[in-house]
Amino acid sequence: MNQVIKASDLKAAGVPGYVIDLKCRPGGPWQRILPGVVLLSATPPTRTQRLHAALAYAGPKAVVTGVDALHAQGLASLPPPPRIHLLQPATTRRTCPDHVLLERTTRPPRVVRESGLPLAEPTRATLDAARHERDPLRQHHLLSTAVRSGLCTVATLTKELNAGNKRGTATTRATLRLLSTLLH
Predict the structure, then answer these.
(1) What is the b/e burial string over 129-148, where b = at least 16 CB atoms within 10 angstroms of the residue's CB?
(2) Parallel, antiparallel or unpaired: strands 84-89 and 63-64
(3) Beta-carbon neighbour count of residue 37 at 10 Å?
(4) For 117, phi and psi rounded to 5 degrees?
(5) Which domain of life is it from (predicted)?
(6) Exposed e or buried b per residue across 97-128, where buried means at least 16 C-beta atoms within 10 angstroms of its C-beta
(7) How far apart are CA 139 and CA 70, in angstroms?
(8) Which residues, in sequence order, are CB contacts of 156 under 8 Å at separation 6+?
(9) Mutual orientation of helices 122-131 and 136-149 as an angle, nearest 10°?
(10) pLDDT by residue (tens digit) across 36-90?
(11) Closest CA to 63 of 30, 112, 12, 13
(12) pLDDT for residue 111
């Protein structure tokens, strides 16, 4: 059980708002981990609980992308980033605290469900992670690891990259060209 619940769901189940506030005080048995989202535990949230909390906060159309989506789809060798990366529809205007990156998109990815989480398919998740990686060596490692694992190919990554926004993709394109020559 991930113990993450929206405060509105607690209220709908009959828990008064003042009880939620009381239990979420410092030293209490619960904690607010995002606005309107409660962890029914006083222990620090796990990465999975943080993922569920971010999704509860962002709404039903949000999708996990980047390294967290790749981890959930079997690529556990990459270190988790400091922020949880979610995609949300372009029409959504939600902002989030520093530890969650909410990115609006007009091109929603194909969704894969794993352990109850809506995830961007591996090619899109890989590119979303690569676009936000500023270190060229770590970006190269990310892309090559995803390709070597069989989650995606250089061709599918290139096709997805060409279909999306071109801004800020020069390093990713160069890395994909290099990987293409190294793998052929």
Answers:
(1) bbbbbeeeeebbbbbbebbe
(2) antiparallel
(3) 23
(4) -105, 135
(5) Bacteria
(6) eeebbbeebeeebebbeeeebbbbbbbbbbbb
(7) 14
(8) 123
(9) 170
(10) 999 999 999 999 999 999 999 999 999 999 999 999 999 988 989 999 999 999 8
(11) 112
(12) 96
β-bridge pairing 4-6 and 37-39: antiparallel
What values do phi and psi take at 48, rounded to 5?
-65, -40
Instruction: Record the pTM.
Output: 0.91
Q: Residue 96 — left, alpha, or beta (φ > 0 → left; ψ -120 to 50 → alpha)?
A: beta
Concatenate the DSSP letters of all residues of 42-107 into one string.
SSPPPHHHHHHHHHHHH-TT-EE-HHHHHHHTT-TTSPPPSSEEEEEETT------TTEEEEEESS
Q: Which residues contact 175 (CB under 8 A, 6 or more apart)?
A: 130, 136, 139, 140, 143
Q: For residue 184, name the pLDDT band (cuts at 50, 70, 90).
A: low
pLDDT digits 0-9 by tens, 75-125: 988 989 999 999 999 888 888 777 899 999 999 999 999 988 999 999 999
